[in-house]
Amino acid sequence: MQQNIIETLVGFIILIIAGIFFTFAYRSSGSLSHDQGYSLVARFQSVDGVVEGSDVMLGGIKIGKVAKLSLDPDTFDAVMKMTIDRDVKLPKDSQANISSSGFLGGKFVAIVPGGDEDNLQNNDRIQRTQSAINLEALIGKFMYSFGNNGSSSSAK
Asked: Which CATH class is domain 37-133?
Protein backbone atom coordinates (compact mmCIF):
# COMPACT_ATOMS: atom_id res chain seq x y z
CA MET A 1 0.00 0.00 0.00
CA GLN A 2 2.82 2.39 0.85
CA GLN A 3 4.39 1.59 -2.55
CA ASN A 4 1.23 2.87 -4.31
CA ILE A 5 1.28 6.13 -2.30
CA ILE A 6 4.92 6.76 -3.23
CA GLU A 7 4.25 6.04 -6.91
CA THR A 8 1.26 8.37 -6.85
CA LEU A 9 3.29 11.17 -5.23
CA VAL A 10 6.13 10.76 -7.76
CA GLY A 11 3.64 10.85 -10.64
CA PHE A 12 2.01 13.98 -9.19
CA ILE A 13 5.41 15.70 -8.83
CA ILE A 14 6.29 14.81 -12.43
CA LEU A 15 3.00 16.31 -13.64
CA ILE A 16 3.69 19.53 -11.72
CA ILE A 17 7.22 19.78 -13.17
CA ALA A 18 5.88 19.13 -16.70
CA GLY A 19 3.24 21.85 -16.23
CA ILE A 20 5.91 24.33 -15.07
CA PHE A 21 8.10 23.39 -18.04
CA PHE A 22 5.29 23.90 -20.58
CA THR A 23 4.29 27.22 -19.01
CA PHE A 24 7.91 28.43 -19.18
CA ALA A 25 8.29 27.23 -22.79
CA TYR A 26 5.07 28.96 -23.86
CA ARG A 27 6.02 32.27 -22.25
CA SER A 28 9.56 32.30 -23.61
CA SER A 29 8.66 31.16 -27.14
CA GLY A 30 8.56 34.75 -28.36
CA SER A 31 5.17 34.35 -29.95
CA LEU A 32 3.48 37.66 -30.68
CA SER A 33 -0.12 38.21 -29.80
CA HIS A 34 -2.24 41.19 -30.81
CA ASP A 35 -1.42 42.77 -27.42
CA GLN A 36 2.32 42.66 -28.09
CA GLY A 37 2.37 44.04 -31.62
CA TYR A 38 0.68 45.94 -34.37
CA SER A 39 -0.74 44.71 -37.66
CA LEU A 40 0.47 45.56 -41.15
CA VAL A 41 -0.99 44.50 -44.50
CA ALA A 42 0.91 43.81 -47.71
CA ARG A 43 -0.25 42.65 -51.16
CA PHE A 44 1.78 40.26 -53.30
CA GLN A 45 1.31 38.62 -56.69
CA SER A 46 2.52 35.38 -55.12
CA VAL A 47 3.36 34.27 -51.58
CA ASP A 48 4.57 30.85 -52.70
CA GLY A 49 6.03 29.00 -49.69
CA VAL A 50 4.90 31.44 -46.99
CA VAL A 51 2.31 30.14 -44.53
CA GLU A 52 0.54 31.56 -41.52
CA GLY A 53 3.09 31.67 -38.72
CA SER A 54 6.07 32.28 -41.02
CA ASP A 55 8.68 34.68 -39.71
CA VAL A 56 8.89 38.37 -40.55
CA MET A 57 12.54 39.40 -40.37
CA LEU A 58 14.52 42.61 -40.44
CA GLY A 59 18.28 42.34 -40.81
CA GLY A 60 18.14 38.62 -40.00
CA ILE A 61 16.25 39.18 -36.73
CA LYS A 62 12.68 38.04 -36.20
CA ILE A 63 10.43 41.05 -35.65
CA GLY A 64 7.05 39.43 -36.23
CA LYS A 65 5.05 36.70 -37.90
CA VAL A 66 2.54 36.21 -40.68
CA ALA A 67 -0.87 36.28 -39.01
CA LYS A 68 -3.20 35.65 -41.94
CA LEU A 69 -3.13 34.98 -45.69
CA SER A 70 -6.10 35.59 -47.96
CA LEU A 71 -6.94 36.15 -51.61
CA ASP A 72 -8.43 39.38 -52.93
CA PRO A 73 -11.30 38.19 -55.19
CA ASP A 74 -11.16 41.33 -57.36
CA THR A 75 -7.43 41.58 -58.13
CA PHE A 76 -6.41 37.99 -57.31
CA ASP A 77 -3.56 39.37 -55.20
CA ALA A 78 -2.41 37.52 -52.11
CA VAL A 79 -3.16 39.67 -49.07
CA MET A 80 -0.86 39.12 -46.10
CA LYS A 81 -1.56 40.37 -42.60
CA MET A 82 1.52 40.51 -40.38
CA THR A 83 1.93 41.12 -36.67
CA ILE A 84 5.02 43.22 -35.92
CA ASP A 85 6.62 43.63 -32.49
CA ARG A 86 5.41 46.92 -31.00
CA ASP A 87 9.00 47.97 -30.17
CA VAL A 88 9.95 47.95 -33.88
CA LYS A 89 8.97 51.15 -35.70
CA LEU A 90 9.08 50.81 -39.50
CA PRO A 91 9.24 53.81 -41.87
CA LYS A 92 6.23 54.27 -44.18
CA ASP A 93 8.31 53.60 -47.30
CA SER A 94 9.58 50.20 -46.10
CA GLN A 95 9.50 47.25 -48.49
CA ALA A 96 8.34 43.66 -47.86
CA ASN A 97 10.06 40.87 -49.83
CA ILE A 98 9.43 37.13 -49.84
CA SER A 99 12.84 35.55 -49.25
CA SER A 100 14.22 32.07 -48.81
CA SER A 101 16.62 30.84 -46.15
CA GLY A 102 18.98 28.97 -48.44
CA PHE A 103 18.46 27.09 -51.70
CA LEU A 104 16.00 24.58 -50.26
CA GLY A 105 15.12 26.46 -47.07
CA GLY A 106 11.81 27.77 -45.89
CA LYS A 107 10.35 31.11 -46.95
CA PHE A 108 9.98 34.19 -44.79
CA VAL A 109 9.09 37.86 -45.19
CA ALA A 110 12.10 40.18 -45.22
CA ILE A 111 11.43 43.83 -44.39
CA VAL A 112 13.73 46.43 -45.94
CA PRO A 113 13.31 49.68 -44.01
CA GLY A 114 12.93 52.91 -45.92
CA GLY A 115 14.05 56.41 -45.04
CA ASP A 116 10.72 58.14 -44.39
CA GLU A 117 10.45 60.08 -41.13
CA ASP A 118 6.86 58.89 -40.56
CA ASN A 119 6.30 55.34 -39.32
CA LEU A 120 3.73 52.73 -40.27
CA GLN A 121 0.83 52.51 -37.83
CA ASN A 122 -1.55 49.71 -36.88
CA ASN A 123 -3.40 48.30 -39.95
CA ASP A 124 -1.33 50.38 -42.43
CA ARG A 125 -0.37 48.88 -45.78
CA ILE A 126 3.18 48.31 -46.98
CA GLN A 127 3.05 49.70 -50.52
CA ARG A 128 6.28 48.27 -51.93
CA THR A 129 6.43 44.47 -52.14
CA GLN A 130 8.37 41.84 -54.04
CA SER A 131 6.81 38.43 -54.58
CA ALA A 132 8.42 35.05 -54.16
CA ILE A 133 10.66 33.75 -56.92
CA ASN A 134 9.46 30.40 -58.24
CA LEU A 135 12.67 28.41 -58.72
CA GLU A 136 10.99 25.60 -60.65
CA ALA A 137 9.63 28.05 -63.24
CA LEU A 138 13.00 29.79 -63.46
CA ILE A 139 14.87 26.52 -64.00
CA GLY A 140 12.23 25.44 -66.54
CA LYS A 141 12.70 28.67 -68.53
CA PHE A 142 16.47 28.21 -68.43
CA MET A 143 16.25 24.61 -69.63
CA TYR A 144 13.74 25.54 -72.35
CA SER A 145 15.89 28.41 -73.63
CA PHE A 146 18.98 26.21 -73.49
CA GLY A 147 17.20 23.51 -75.50
CA ASN A 148 16.00 26.01 -78.13
CA ASN A 149 19.47 27.56 -78.52
CA GLY A 150 21.03 24.14 -79.05
CA SER A 151 18.53 23.07 -81.72
CA SER A 152 18.65 26.36 -83.67
CA SER A 153 22.45 26.42 -83.69
CA SER A 154 22.64 22.86 -85.08
CA ALA A 155 20.28 23.81 -87.93
CA LYS A 156 22.63 26.53 -89.16
From this structure: mainly beta
